[in-house]
């Protein structure tokens, strides 16, 4: 027996202080019963949750666990709990869109409050990025990076702000407004981390410069992982053969993934080959293994995306060939048949296969560095040591092949 959705959501809903008052009044009998039963949560449960979650979420999890236990394991609950369940309205499911949004907003406020309280009066750095969402609205995301009272580096999401204009002044005003919401000030900022866009790091009127004019201690650092990706892509594309390789990878993604029918063919072909390989013992089964059934499109500003594309093509190579052969033989459009024929000839050539595996080895080294640079607890000393090791590994590839 599984507890109904109303019980699973109730713990989250009742213990968030930001929930609308009229909703709190409706579910207050449940809240009292839930809080009473929460005292009986086993210490082992609380410790396991506390290891990975802020205090607010510890309470949410403990209440959810106890409510599910009450509904499924206890045939004779005490009088107060029994009365709370009987007095609740039968249609109290808490699944209306407005209530669901209220739950999310309340949880977000409580979680952010815990993070800001952890920061206290300490100095911090801001990490800012902008993105356009699916509704074509520009959003600015802000994260805080700081060292807590235990000397541990922490990096937490602060908020997502809609900006009508992406010029530097608009971004600065939006950032200040968000910080003021949580009683934070630009005067406490000691670091800025953005990408390399001109409106962000421009020397004359970029966001970096505007903040430095107001706070000269807010030093700017261009994200190391972003610099690494841009440098790799730029250097690689200066070699004609490698530039051609990445262009062919893009064309492959376009041809194979242009329609649902071709994507389904790729998926079915790969699943068949995976089943055969499992039966023969060529590969092993396990959670999270053998799930790649589609080509991954690369992007110049997305970390490790080129490496992921190469790995995916190597894994799906026989299935990709099958799809291209189908397009070559059965596609009605003559231009697409010609393109599929050309791609088949190229990707099965020695030069393409050699360059594909060469870049796999090179990007494999730099991908490890990129992943390490993105760790929340990374520091400059360790980062530079990792750069030195990666340079030596690349030199070894150059010298020894």
TrEMBL record:
Domain DUF4371: 84-206
Keywords from the UniProt entry: Signal
Domain of life per record: Eukaryota
Alphabetized Pfam families for the sequence: DUF4371
Keyword Cell wall biogenesis/degradation: no
Signal peptide: 1-25
Protein name: Uncharacterized protein LOC107489892
Species of origin: Arachis duranensis (Wild peanut)
């Amino acid at each position: 027996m599984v507890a109904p959705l109303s019980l699973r959501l109730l713990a989250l809903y009742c213990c968030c202080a930001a929930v609308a008052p009229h909703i709190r009044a409706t579910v207050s009998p449940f809240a009292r019963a839930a809080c009473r039963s929460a005292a009986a949560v086993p210490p082992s449960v609380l410790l396991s949750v506390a290891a990975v979650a802020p205090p607010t979420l510890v309470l949410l999890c403990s209440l959810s666990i106890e409510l599910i236990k009450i509904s499924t394991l206890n045939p004779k609950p005490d009088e107060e709990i029994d009365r709370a369940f009987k007095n609740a309205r039968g249609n109290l499911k808490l699944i209306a869109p407005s209530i669901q949004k209220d739950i999310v907003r309340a949880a977000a406020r409580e979680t952010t409050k815990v993070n800001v309280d952890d920061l206290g009066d300490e100095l911090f750095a801001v990490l800012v990025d902008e993105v356009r969402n699916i509704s074509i609205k520009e959003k600015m995301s802000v994260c805080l990076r700081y060292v807590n009272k235990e000397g541990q580096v922490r990096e937490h999401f602060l908020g997502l702000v809609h900006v009508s204009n992406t010029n530097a002044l608009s971004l600065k005003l939006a950032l200040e407004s968000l910080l003021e919401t949580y009683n934070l000030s630009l005067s406490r900022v000691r670091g800025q981390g953005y990408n390399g866009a001109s409106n962000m790091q421009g020397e004359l009127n970029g966001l970096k410069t505007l903040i430095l004019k107001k706070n000269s201690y807010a030093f700017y650092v261009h994200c190391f992982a972003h610099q690494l990706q841009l440098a790799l892509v730029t250097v690689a594309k200066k070699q004609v053969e490698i530039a051609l390789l990445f262009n062919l990878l893009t064309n492959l993604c376009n041809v194979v993934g242009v329609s649902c029918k071709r994507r389904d063919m790729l998926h079915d072909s790969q699943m068949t080959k995976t089943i055969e390989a499992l039966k023969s013992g060529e590969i092993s089964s396990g959670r999270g293994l053998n799930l790649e059934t589609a080509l991954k499109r690369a992007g110049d500003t997305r970390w490790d995306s080129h490496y992921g594309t190469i790995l995916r093509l190597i894994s799906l190579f026989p299935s990709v060939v099958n799809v291209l052969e189908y397009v070559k033989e059965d596609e009605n459009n003559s231009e697409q048949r010609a393109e599929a024929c050309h791609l088949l000839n190229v990707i099965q050539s020695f030069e393409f296969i050699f360059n594909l595996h060469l870049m796999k080895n090179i990007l494999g080294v730099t991908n490890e560095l990129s992943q390490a640079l993105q760790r929340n607890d990374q520091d400059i000393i360790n980062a530079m040591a990792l750069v030195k090791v990666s340079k030596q590994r690349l030199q070894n590839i150059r010298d020894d092949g």
